[in-house]
Q: What sequence folds into this?
């Protein structure tokens, strides 16, 4: 019987050791899960920040392109206006003669 108690005692001790090891493993697993969650949150935040920065950079570059294109259109329009004005100025004397001829026939 003493052998049985000693055997049962050993089994209980082993069960207790295993139970402690299981608890330790669970706690370590919980810590690992918490670290992984925190790291994933950091990665997600960093990705969001990078995405926002990339979008802002893209928008800024596109706005610069659009502004350059608008400036080019303004310059071209100004040139066309000057060209039409110069052509018109050369034709003023002829237009005046025709108008006078219509108003004052003869």
A:
């Amino acid at each position: 019987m003493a052998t049985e108690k000693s055997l049962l005692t050993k089994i209980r001790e082993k069960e207790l050791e295993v139970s402690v090891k299981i608890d330790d493993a669970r706690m370590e697993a919980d810590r690992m899960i918490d670290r992984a969650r925190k790291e994933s949150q950091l990665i997600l935040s960093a990705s969001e920040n990078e995405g926002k920065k990339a979008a802002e950079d893209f928008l800024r570059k596109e706005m610069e392109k659009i502004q350059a294109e608008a400036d080019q259109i303004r310059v071209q329009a100004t040139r066309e206006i000057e060209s039409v004005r110069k052509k018109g100025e050369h034709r003023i004397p002829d237009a005046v003669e025709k108008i006078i001829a219509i108003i004052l026939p003869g």
Notes: The CA atoms of residues 63 and 69 lie 10 Å apart. The mean pLDDT is 92. DSSP finds one helix and no strands in the chain.
